[in-house]
Amino acid sequence: MSDAFQALSRRVLPLAAAVGFALVATPALARGPDGIADVAEKVIDAVVNISTSQTVDAKNNDDKGGDERGNNNRRGANPQLPPDSPFSEFFDEFFKNRRGGPDSKGNSPRKVNSLGSGFIIDADGTVVTNNHVIADADEINVILNDGTKIKAEVIGKDKKSDLAVLKFTPPEKKITAVKFGNSENLRLGEWVIAIGNPFSLGGTVTAGIVSARNRDINSGPYDNYIQTDASINRGNSGGPLFNLDGEVIGVNTAIISPSGGSIGIGFAVPSKTVMAVVDQLRQFKEVRRGWLGVRIQQVTDEIAESLSIKPARGALIAGVDDKGPAKPAGIEPGDVVVKFDGKDIKEMKDLPRAVADSPVGKAVDVVIIRKGKEETRKVTLGRLDDGEKAVEASAKTTSPVETEKPVTQKALGLDLAGLSKDLRTRYKIKDNVKGVIVTGVDSGSDAAEKRLSAGDVIVEVAQEAVTNAADVKKRIDQLKKDGKKSVLLLVSNGSGELRFVALAVK
């Protein structure tokens, strides 16, 4: 559980260290449009501080590095302030309280307090925040802008989108709630306003612009963040990002920072995603996502050339779950999904998002390219458990020690052999895996670069099944004659998990 704004730690070099520049006097200009103050005044009472407490073992303290996304920032690190700074005493006290005070020694359980942000979306006291703000909390309190502190309960939370919905009983006085706007209408350069609780400094308003949309920061399968340069810091997690109409168009969730402080690169979950997740959490107390039942990988330029797809696009089906919805619909490994339920699939990551956004049980049209031709398949979606599984194209198997050199043929820098009983035992290949086994890979070859290794099994060459090394060599020689620049291999590991690998034909 984190009391602080999640930071993606990266090394960032100062601009002055890379390029020379001269200081030029410029006229003082107002930062942003005049309407920022009006928007802040209208919505600030809907923004709340989230205070949580958790009982932990003393050994699981703040001195361990990292946060929920594997960052190297230490949660216990104080901001670097000059010794004579008027804020030094405040921050010393703040971080001392977070660690449980100066007397929290030994191994006895202790309370850890955390702080984050959230916002009210209706008069009944429903609050939206980040999951990592309240995860594992024993007690959660909502603190209104006037200082009123009220106990809250969790209605539902979703780790994949890092969102949570809370509920508290409003005081007798009327409370302010805010509405969601349409994040799809955001334009690059549009002004936005962030309000939150950085470093326990509640009710903090900052402004900036939309720097980018649809950002993938590798934090999860459904990354689709709004990037902004509005100043957001630790403690802003779960706070709203407003447009100039006072509508919530994002939930501030992560920053890129080498130190934990703002450097002008922050990320917010777009309101389109938030609204869908919040609706399901309020209705079901969980998120129910659609499931296609496939394993996918990126369509690289080499794979696209091998499949005669121009330009490279879509999501390549590397495997189909025997119990999944795609199987009875006739979707097969080697198909490339280019459209799902009317939405273009431009790259691999678009497919899990589109599927997850679709209701369970919905019948959708899936447009695939198979052997150069488009086909449409009707699929009735199941319910997601583990998600559309992305395949690492460079997955590597461990090569066991050989006891006897098998009879092999050479092709594309690979030593190939038939799958004998001895080779199955030596490389731990399951009986249901059929094809031609790789027994060696030339150092420096394209195959080595793509991380093929001894123990991999070639199932298909150019979407045709192969059963012996001669088949593989024959197919490759034919592709060379046809002028192909690369050959597409369907490769299995010993357990039967498939992936596609495109190798250059030389």
From TrEMBL:
UniProt keywords, alphabetically: Hydrolase, Periplasm, Protease, Repeat, Serine protease, Signal, Stress response
Span of the signal peptide: 1-30
Protease is among the record's keywords: yes
Main location: periplasm
SMART domains: PDZ
Name of the protein in question: Probable periplasmic serine endoprotease DegP-like
Subcellular location: Periplasm
Molecular-function annotations in GO: serine-type endopeptidase activity
Region (Disordered) location: 55-86
PROSITE patterns xrefs: PDZ (PS50106)
Family in the record: Belongs to the peptidase S1C family.
Active-site residues from the entry: H132 (charge relay system), D162 (charge relay system), S237 (charge relay system)
Basic and acidic residues bias locations: 59-71
Residues covered by the PDZ domain: 281-372, 400-494
